[in-house]
Amino acid sequence: xxxxxxxxxxxxxxxxxxxxxxxxxxxxxxxxxxxxxxxxxxxxxxxxxxxxxxxxxxxx
Amino acid sequence: xxxxxxxxxxxxxxxxxxxxxxxxxxxxxxxxxxxxxxxxxxxxxxxxxxxxxxxxxxxxxxxxxxxxxxxxxxxxxxxxxxxxxxxxxxxxxxxxxxxxxxxxxxxxxxxxxxxxxxxxxxxxxxxxxxxxxxxxxxxxxxxxxxxxxxxxxxxxxxxxxxxxxxxxxxxxxxxxxxxxxxxxxxxxxxxxxxxxxxxxxxxxxxxxxxxxxxxxxxxxxxxxxxx
Lengths: 60, 227
What we know:
The complex is a heterodimer. Chain A is mainly α. Helices cover 92% and strands 0% of the residues of chain A.
């Protein structure tokens, strides 16, 4: 590369790398929220299962 | 959800504009007769700088709206805007230093008012996060809003410094009489600027969707624990 094109490549590489890194961080947060949704869903399922068992026992 | 839809739409718009502007800057825009290929840094460097100032302006408006309404939504908008503005500012400083090395032979010029005042703006907004971490809940939101409004006073200082300074090395492209560049370059700068503004809005929308989801999840988890 000549005529300063390496500087242009470096500048644009920095821009896209940092923007991409920021998007990855946002994506990681979204994934964490997704995991929390799954945990709450599991908690709800367990609770509903327990309430179902209790209700069934009471009817007998 | 409308927030998710807006994030998706702005993400698509930003991606299209970024691709079009990159193609235009590298393949269509003419090479500058004076600086040659290194002038191509200008398109994104200046566009990101203006987008960062827009982000700080948004945080200032969000701060005013928070103080008037006390709605946490405006605190979210303010913090997310400053975070994105700070990311853009870091990009401006790095790309500016690379351009300075290529053009002036040095990474930084401490005697140039534009460079130094812009660095001061970056440091002022970096301190915003130190302030945020030092307070809790309503007090944190109130302090943050006041700081975002006060911090915005540094933006015109940076913008006008180069115009009132007697000696500087940083070029001024946009003056009161218009842009000092041919139309064939200006069109690609306008597209790059639109791309960076769209990128800011897209990142802001994605950030806000994430914050809303986290807040809703916390409320739900609390209700489940208490039930």
